[in-house]
């Protein structure tokens, strides 16, 4: 199972809090479906889009690692409970200093 880069997660989290970026991130995530996040190419595309939206460069290796991690999560972005669980996961990883 893939893991997530702690430094990259902290960077994404801090940028997501900014109102300029928050709404852009929400639009990107709102377009995703459960089936989209089971496909490697779609996951990579979403990660690239988030990277551009947050103005955070990401290497192909990081994208690959995070896409595999995301595919294993089985998250459904349309499911409110899944969204809350993922947000809690992101927050808890950031607070522990490890990392999406």
Keywords:
100 residues; mainly alpha
Nearest-integer average pLDDT: 83
Can you count the helices?
Answer: 5
Rg, nearest Å: 12 Å
- Please indicate the count of domains: 1
Biggest sheet record: none
Distance between the termini: 13 Å
Strand content: under 5%
Overall strand count? 0
SS-based class: mainly alpha
Q: So what's the overall shape?
A: globular
Unreliable segments (pLDDT under 50, ≥5 consecutive)? 94-100
Helix and strand element order = HHHHH
Short recap of the structure:
The protein is an all-alpha fold and 100 residues long. Helices cover 69% and strands 0% of the residues.
Structure notes:
- 11% of the residues are buried.
- 69% of the residues lie in helices and 0% in strands.
- The protein contains five helices and no strands.
- The protein has one domain.
- The C terminus is likely disordered.
- The protein is globular and about 25 Å long.
- By secondary structure, it is mainly alpha-helical.
Q: How are the elements arranged and paired?
A:
Layout: H1 6-16, H2 19-30, H3 40-54, H4 60-73, H5 80-96
